[in-house]
Design goal:
binds beta-alanine, Nitrilase/N-carbamoyl-D-aminoacid amidohydrolase, eight-stranded mixed β-sheet, alpha/beta, globular
């Protein structure tokens, strides 16, 4: 698939080329019920950061009060060259992060989420172990978690920090891990990426193995949250499992490029929200990261020094199928979205997907499908 580079975002094309009822008809068919825009102009923040804010309301109930939560999704390109020294890169990213978290606090954000492996270049295309493995650090006691704990406590904010984890307890193995810090600055736990890609230049299996933390849901003061890391978004059962464990918001911190996945990007997390009756938050990195040494993709194409363009386009999707516009395809951005978690149960009641999901039927099929003597259920015309 060829990479599309020359436009800021899909919504701009709709805005420029459709008017009046045509625009609203197409927008509604593409994005569902309209979301409300929140005016943050009164909030002073770094003007070279695209900040957009929306509200996804749901009908008020008689017995339950609204459970409004503000989510902040931060997408960014690395601020210094990918080949910079590790500590220099981390410090530059920490500075960006602090600005984004401060802006989030001014915007009333309760839960903040970074993109995948936010504190390093996404260097897994190179298959080089050094220096990239040196970015790995302890999930609970490493410098990145320590840095964020302070901010989470000061700003009463839950922070989801996807990083490269070094598990010193188990032979210094490396994992692709999301660390969850609660709004008191306490380390709440972690989740390791369940599904590791072997596609294109995503040579992540060179560095880490499939995760072993299952499908944890973290109970926070702002709702039950889970993290489906990047490639896991292509696996519907991965989304289902977080839903079965009671998630109300599932974050999908990602790093993915236009040539590989852009037409799928707006479908997968949004479909998961609809099918599982929860909110999903798709966050993707932006920019192009160039490395020192050439590498090939094993597809006969010429060797190259970059992954291609990470296309940002972060968005929030609701269980009723509505979604926010995406952030820019090329700029750093912060997407603030206020959601009412009551919508999760309202939509489950309305559609009944959880009542009709026939888990027993699929449990039986899956139990048979994993066995070496599995026989697919194929009906053929008998020869007799
Ligand atoms: N990080 C893997 C790329 C993708 O899932 O699109």
């Amino acid at each position: 698939m060829s990479e599309i580079k020359e436009f800021e975002r899909l919504e701009d094309i709709l805005d420029k080329n459709l008017t009046g009822s045509n625009y609203e008809t197409v927008r509604q068919l593409l994005y569902g019920r309209a979301v409300e825009q929140i005016d943050l102009k009164t909030i002073p923040f770094n003007r070279n950061l695209q900040v957009e804010a929306y509200r996804i309301p749901c009908p008020e109930e008689q017995l339950r009060k609204p459970r409004n939560v503000r989510i902040g999704l931060f997408q960014n390109q690395i601020p210094v060259p990918a080949t910079s020294k590790i500590q220099y890169m981390k410090n530059a990213l920490y500075k960006l992060a602090e600005e984004a978290i401060e802006t989030s606090q001014k915007s009333g954000v309760n839960i903040f989420c970074f993109q995948e492996a936010w504190n390093m270049p996404f260097a897994f295309c190179t298959r080089e172990k050094y220096p990239w493995s040196e970015y790995a650090e302890s999930a609970q006691y490493g410098p990145t978690t320590k840095f964020l704990q302070e901010l989470a406590k000061n700003y009463n904010m839950v922070i989801i920090s996807p990083i490269l984890e070094r598990d010193e307890t188990h032979s210094d193995t490396i994992w692709n891990t999301a660390v969850i810090i609660d709004n008191h600055g306490d380390y709440l736990g972690k989740h390791r990426k369940n599904h590791i890609p072997r596609v294109g230049d995503f040579n992540e299996s060179t560095y880490y193995f499939e995760g072993n933390t299952g499908h944890p849901v973290f109970e926070t003061e702002f709702g039950k949250i889970a993290v489906n890391i990047c490639y896991g978004r292509h696996h519907p059962l991965n989304w289902l499992a977080f839903g079965l464990n009671g998630a109300e918001i599932v974050f999908n911190p990602s790093a993915t490029t236009g040539g590989l996945s852009e037409p799928l990007w707006g479908i997968e997390a949004r479909n998961a929200a609809i099918a599982n009756g929860y909110f999903t938050c798709a966050i993707n990195r932006v920019g192009t990261e160039t490395f020192e040494h050439e590498f090939t993709s094993g597809n006969g194409k010429p060797a190259h020094k970059d992954f291609g363009h990470f296309y940002g386009s972060s968005y929030v999707a609701a269980p009723d199928g509505s979604r926010t516009p995406g952030l820019s395809r090329t700029k750093n951005g912060l997407l603030v979205t206020e959601v009412d978690l009551n919508m999760c149960r309202q939509v489950k009641d309305h559609w009944g997907f959880q009542m009709t999901q026939r888990l027993d039927l699929y449990a039986d099929l899956l139990a048979r499908a994993v066995k070496s003597d599995f026989q697919p259920q194929i009906i053929k015309k008998s020869n007799c």
